[in-house]
Amino acid sequence: MDTDTYPKAIFELKDSIFLSPASMPVTTISQSVIGDLTLRGVTKEVVFSVAGSLDNGVITITGQIPIQFSEWGIPNPSVPAVFIFTEPNGLLEFSLMFKRVEG
Known about the structure:
By secondary structure, the protein is an all-beta fold. It has a single domain, classed as Lipocalin. Helices cover 0% and strands 50% of the residues. It is built from no helices and five strands. The protein has strands spanning 10-13, 29-39, 42-55, 58-68, 89-99. Strands 1-2-3-4-5 form a five-stranded antiparallel β-sheet, with no helix packed on it. The radius of gyration is 17 Å and the shape is elongated. The termini are far apart.
């Protein structure tokens, strides 16, 4: 994956995400989001779902973005010499936690 050369993935959200605090303690809320994802210097618009929940004052947002390695210039991480073979795709998964800090 060459993380020495490309240590960061960047995502820029195109629209605001609204998760109503009033309903979050009751259930997990899902919402579709759109933005620009940059991996290995390649930027593409992506659309995916996120889930949000509120627990003890902490908002947790999770999601996953399907990645086709060749579309992002990512070499397939297979290592045939030692019989390690992978699919040509993977998932970029994330979990973000937000907590209000009183200051």
